[in-house]
Specification:
The chain is mainly alpha-helical. 47% of the residues lie in helices and 5% in strands.
Length: 129
């Protein structure tokens, strides 16, 4: 089930009093390395406080850079919070199982049992390796 505040909580883990980064330090670091897009202290403050902010691919890249976390992690958190889509492994694939990584975007109320076609696709792909 996606978390309604996943991006906010991700930022709160890193930014604020008693955390590794101050709002100011995070805002200074939060620059998309490709576009140069940065986010303001007020935007960071809004995000930390749980207020909605305008999300663009460049803003998500800036957040990832500022937190020093993978962009995919920030994107998944934003999808959960802003779109209500979960991106996870509904099949609980064990780590190291032939280096298979499974990530499925799905409605929050869907489980692996609700997605037999996806399971069949993954099984076919694994057999073809």
């Amino acid at each position: 089930m996606p978390e309604q505040d996943a991006l906010t909580r991700l930022v709160q883990e890193h930014v604020g009093e008693g955390r590794p980064l101050t709002v100011r330090a995070f805002a200074e670091r939060a620059v998309d390395p490709e576009s140069g897009t940065s986010i303001s202290k007020s935007t960071v403050g809004n995000l930390v406080q749980g207020h909605r902010i305008k999300i663009t691919p460049e803003v998500l890249a800036a957040i990832a850079a500022g937190l020093d976390v993978p962009l995919a992690r920030v994107q998944a958190a934003a999808m959960a919070q802003y779109v209500g889509i979960a991106v996870d492994d509904p099949y609980d694939t064990p780590p190291g199982e032939d280096d298979l990584v499974v990530r499925v975007a799905h409605a929050p109320d869907r489980t692996a049992d609700d997605m037999p076609t996806v399971r069949a696709f993954l099984d076919r792909a694994k057999r073809q390796e």
